[in-house]
Fold this sequence. Notes:
Largest sheet of chain B: 7 strands, mixed
Order of helices and strands of chain A: HHHHHHHH
Structural class of chain A: mainly alpha
Number of domains of chain A: 1
Structural class of chain B: alpha+beta
Oligomer: heterodimer
Distance between the termini of chain A: 78 Å
CATH class of chain A: Mainly Alpha
CATH topology of chain A: Butyryl-CoA Dehydrogenase, subunit A, domain 3
Order of helices and strands of chain B: HHHHHEEHEHEEHEHHEH
Mean pLDDT of chain A: 80
Helix content of chain B: 40-55%
Largest interface: A-B, 43 and 30 residues
Helix content of chain A: 55-70%
CATH superfamily of chain A: PhyR, sigma-like (SL) domain
Number of helices of chain B: 11
Number of strands of chain A: 0
Strand content of chain B: 15-25%
Radius of gyration of chain A: 20 Å
Amino acid sequence: MKAVNALPAAVRPPGRVAAPSFADVVAEDLDAVYRYLVYLTGDRVAAEDLAAETFERAFRSWRRFDPRRGAPRTWLCRIAHSAAVDWFRAEARRQRREENYSRDELQLEESVFAEGLSPELDRALHRLTPAEREVVALRVLLELDGPSAARVLGISGTACSTRLSRALKRLEEEMSDVRN
Amino acid sequence: MSATDGNEMDGYEALVSELRAHPPVAPERLRQRVLEGAPAARAPRSRRRKLVLVVAPLAVVLAVGAALVHGFVNSGSNRAALLAPNARIPGGLAHSKYGAANTTPEAAVAHSLPVPQSKQLSTASKTYSLSNVAAGSVYDSLGTSRQAVTIPRHRLVHATASLQVGVKSSDLSAKTNEASQIVGSFGGYAQSVRYQATHQGDGEALLSLRVPVQNAQAAIAKLGGLGTLLSQQVSTQDLQAKVTHQTSAIGSLRRAITVYEAALRSPSLSATDRASLQIKLNNARRAQARLRHARAGTLASAATAGISLLLTTNNHAVVPVHHGSTRIGRLLGSAAHFLALEGIIVLYALIVLAPVLLIGGLVWWALRERRRREERLLASA
């Protein structure tokens, strides 16, 4: 008679989720975090620095990460969001200090968001606010579901949906403007 | 992504497709940077922090716990001891000076085990002290502290007393002389007198007095009446048992000596036995002489009481601190006192260790700066 309690070795007890190694998370989610930060900041160099900072912070608090509470990508995006907010604050202070700030002009000379993107879309993306680009990045590029994206943004699911709709609508409008 | 999640993107399929078709790709250098920036050596820091987070609250809990235990142990009902029948203040002293509203007596018994009358042969020592405190003391209403300390007259006791009496500046000299006269009138004498005063008469006089024990109580009462009694301590030690024991030992030795002498008179005693007995006889005689001398000393110490009298123009006595009348009040007060003591110890340790900690911190900061400078240099290269 087959023992009832003899479970297959591959079956884990319910509620226990195997934590991935940090290297696995880096390999899998670095691109996603980088994309998110590029869209959020509109600055590849800053995105690179912030991505590095995000993973440094993530490594420091890696022991506290609980895979049952959410996917590593969502967790990393929340850290990246926090790092980006700090960066925006610092940038705002720097802009106030420097009167002849000409970052916008410099960035428009080359493709900021991705290679191969049409110039109209690139420019239209640049005209969006960081908050709009952020939601586009999370929902479209990273393909996070609504609740996860809302958790990263710190807003409700409805607000997240609304923000995405408006962002996409505005993106299309800006593209039309650029074409005309 | 669930099916409903895509509703917001309806109508923007082309846009979404283009965005997804050209995602930004993290450069390889970023990948290297992230992987290199996560050294395994950083892991123990978390453990250290955890240890600190556990140890620090534990230390605080232990300190507070120890203070509470100390407070609980020391907050016993010492009021019962204070009001014990033996803790009586000389009536003359109390009535003469404590009628005033601002001089309410408070008695504190340092060693207050009452000696039962049945234990006539036991040796006991007792100490009674009294200090004036602010008006409103609980003992005033009880009236117990107004009774007199009894120095036994029919037993051999060694009594010592210490009095602090406040006098007016103009009276210090006169009161010092009066104290000597009082002692003389009771058959005693002033062993030593130390007088210190300014031109204005402010100062103090410390008198070491000896009075026959049977007159000690009356002398203390009269000396306390020289001015405002600020504090008083009376201690007695029963010597009856000691003298009885010494007398009994002397009697035993006397009987032994008689036996040895009778034995030595016997003509049939061998030379060896005679020598041995002679030695024992001599030892017994020496021991008897020693005991007689000791008994004479005991009797002498029981003959007179030593009184230390401090006459001062500064009418403030050192008053023992009491933290409230209830047990909880005393417990909290004692715990707070203990905590303060712990704080002092910690502060002292910090002061002592501060230079070491400062140097350590500076070294740590310098090393960190050096490492950061190297990192910046490598990043810019």
